[in-house]
Amino acid sequence: MGKAINNNGKYHKKLTIGLFGFGVVGEGLYKALQQTSSLNATIKKVCIKHPGKKRNAPEELFTTDKDELLNDEEINVIVEVINESEPAFEIVSTALLNGKHAVSASKKMIAEHLPKLLELQKQTGKSFLCEAAACASIPVIRNLEEYYDNDLLHSLKAIVNGSTNFILTKMFEESLSFKDALLLAQQLGFAESDPTLDVDGWDAVNKWAILLTHAYGIVEHPDNIVFSGIQNIQSGDALVAKEKHYDIKLVAQAKKLLNGKVAAFVLPQFVKADDHLSFVKNEYNGVVLESSFADKQFFYGKGAGSFPTASAVLSDISALRYNYRYEYKKLYHHIVPELSEDFYVKAYVSFDDWQYIPKEKFEWIEEWHAEAERKYLVGVLPFTELKNNNWWRENNTSLILSPEPVIEDVEIRRLKKKSLELAGI
Amino acid sequence: MGKAINNNGKYHKKLTIGLFGFGVVGEGLYKALQQTSSLNATIKKVCIKHPGKKRNAPEELFTTDKDELLNDEEINVIVEVINESEPAFEIVSTALLNGKHAVSASKKMIAEHLPKLLELQKQTGKSFLCEAAACASIPVIRNLEEYYDNDLLHSLKAIVNGSTNFILTKMFEESLSFKDALLLAQQLGFAESDPTLDVDGWDAVNKWAILLTHAYGIVEHPDNIVFSGIQNIQSGDALVAKEKHYDIKLVAQAKKLLNGKVAAFVLPQFVKADDHLSFVKNEYNGVVLESSFADKQFFYGKGAGSFPTASAVLSDISALRYNYRYEYKKLYHHIVPELSEDFYVKAYVSFDDWQYIPKEKFEWIEEWHAEAERKYLVGVLPFTELKNNNWWRENNTSLILSPEPVIEDVEIRRLKKKSLELAGI
């Protein structure tokens, strides 16, 4: 049992890879493959933009001509880890149309081209794998595909952006201001010099659009999903959270409603101390799945960084040796539920002035506090308010969902009555 | 996108299943498959022991003749969820030799026949999948196979037995006595009428033997792995744990040592409140993996119960449609590390009388407390003491490892010196 025996030469496909991109992830992947000889996968050529740069790999490996990869019949897998959406989409489409499998880490590109990518997979029969695009080293897509066929996924919620989670952890545990926490994140490489993509929630909603397809078969452009980042959260909110023994996290959620439709959004939320997501700190990600069969599952791991991302790409490459592909069972084999707006959410809203808050839109308000500088309330409002209006994220207004925020249509009357009774009305 | 379209007819294998066993898991699987039409997998025949029983499925589905399944050429997958080791092994071997894939949930059988099962897979080229045998709905085997090729897994630790974890949670959080917690577990179906297999750690070490093969390529009979269950834990231990802000869990661990060998054992352990495993309560299981690439990963879910187990079997069946099989890369493509005894462990030991404790075997003792009835000490001892002797689990002696219990050979001198200095010696 001490010798290295090639057990699987018979049925394993040899993978000859064309790699686009040699930044931190690309180089990480290159190094990882060098250490993984048993995989029988080699990078034949790497396509990069700037030929002049010094790189930690033999010069002859590199080219600036994408066709050298895309038209090479020997190359059967294209791996794309570049940072630009449209070129990335071009590369992936061409790869699939040229009979090659494709592996990608580009969440923005994938989220913005979901219908076309699905079409290409169906049309060409080739695999398009993108585990690295959703929470990196956490095998969430693979798990949704393998474990959650059909209607049994009740809900999922996740922290999918390490950058914002790092900032929130620092604001909470070390009482840093938002500004200082962001600066620290940038210094440590957890946030870009332009952090808007992360801080404003774009990265998170892109990932959520991808995961909704695998979780429920829902194919929606990220623009159609209600989201916010952490850009409006204030230190005062963190204080209130602490008083109530909560954390604040940016949580991507999806829940099957009683009417069969799905509520989905990406918003800051108060999270109880014993919630799995409270446990997810700094740049880590976490996913909680609730279903009829497996009950509750929780996955936790690094959602970003060159090695965690490279490990996810590596795992996809590994699966290609037995022709693994996403089946999108919820999309192709079941009636796909619609995204719904017909529900209510309970939320905390902090604001500078009552004039910014459309009080009449709330079903009821459970509590409110007013200081000279800042005020806040906790109330229930129709989700359509968040979908169709912007007051909740303008003028320094900060909205943070309560734990268990979704209230179904059928419950609203009963709960409103109860709330009024409690208030002595 | 609302219609059910069969996208994958072209390359998907139709799976015709012969099922052995129709207890809670077998029936759960049957029901699950009925709801999962897109899987293109049907149970053709079910082999049971007692024909008279009333069952929730058509009578013609059942037979008592195993050859009706094993010799049927139409059946290409055997699923075995019975409760007896030797018959289960017979069934699985015959299935593989007859050119059928096999799926099993029988951890005891698998742990006790590892070399033969590996041999059969190599010899026949057929798949033998057993996700349900290790933490049920947590995809730990699949993850070890897919994400951790080669030498990069530093350590893994897990709570793999829901029964004992339920008992420990009740002892801790509700201050129940061991006896009362066990009774409650039995009433709720989390422990058998003969709970020894769970309580004494046999079930946990069986699962660990299986996971060591996938994690490190180590093939060891469970008898060769040092283990204990929770049978010796006392209420007094729980009190000490609380004082020190620890939990007590039954933890299966494996760690790569500096010398390249692997330390592995299943023992009760003090777990800090912020440890992932502290979060694993009642009948849930959890696995923490530390590696060079993905850094830290944590998986949490239900490790037992008919539906979580059935969901794991279902996931294995699903993978058989593209001929998935375990590659055991660490076993076949790398030098397999040995199990080592050349290290030390720090442990808390509570006992009735000093006569039961071989004090001279300890490298040093850091603290000790003596009451009339019960005494305890915390000290460092060579792991060989646990491997070769029984004093630590006889005569009402209770051993619980400290958090971070493993001390490497090379460190022992330095740490002993430091410990003596701290003690003012």
UniProtKB/TrEMBL annotation, chains A, B:
Pathway where it operates: Amino-acid biosynthesis; L-methionine biosynthesis via de novo pathway; L-homoserine from L-aspartate: step 3/3; Amino-acid biosynthesis; L-threonine biosynthesis; L-threonine from L-aspartate: step 3/5
Matches recorded under SUPFAM superfamilies = Glyceraldehyde-3-phosphate dehydrogenase-like, C-terminal domain, NAD(P)-binding Rossmann-fold domains
Protein name as annotated? Homoserine dehydrogenase
Pinpoint the Aspartate/homoserine dehydrogenase NAD-binding domain residues. Answer: 21-130
Catalyzed chemical reaction(s): L-homoserine + NADP(+) = L-aspartate 4-semialdehyde + NADPH + H(+)
An example GO biological process term is:
threonine biosynthetic process
Recorded family membership: Belongs to the homoserine dehydrogenase family.
User: What single Pfam family name could you report for this chain, choosing any that match?
Assistant: Homoserine_dh
Q: Where is the Homoserine dehydrogenase catalytic domain?
A: 139-317
The cross-references to InterPro entries, in alphabetical order and at most eight, read: Asp/hSer_DH_NAD-bd, HDH_cat, HDH_CS, NAD(P)-bd_dom_sf
Q: Care to name a GO molecular-function term for this sequence?
A: NADP binding
Note the superkingdom of the native organism.
Bacteria
Q: Which UniProt keywords apply?
A: Amino-acid biosynthesis, Methionine biosynthesis, NADP, Oxidoreductase, Threonine biosynthesis
Organism encoding this protein: Parafilimonas terrae
Query: What top-level class of enzyme does the UniProt entry assign?
Result: oxidoreductase
Looking at the UniProt entry, the stretches that span the membrane are none
This entry's Enzyme Commission designation comes to: 1.1.1.3
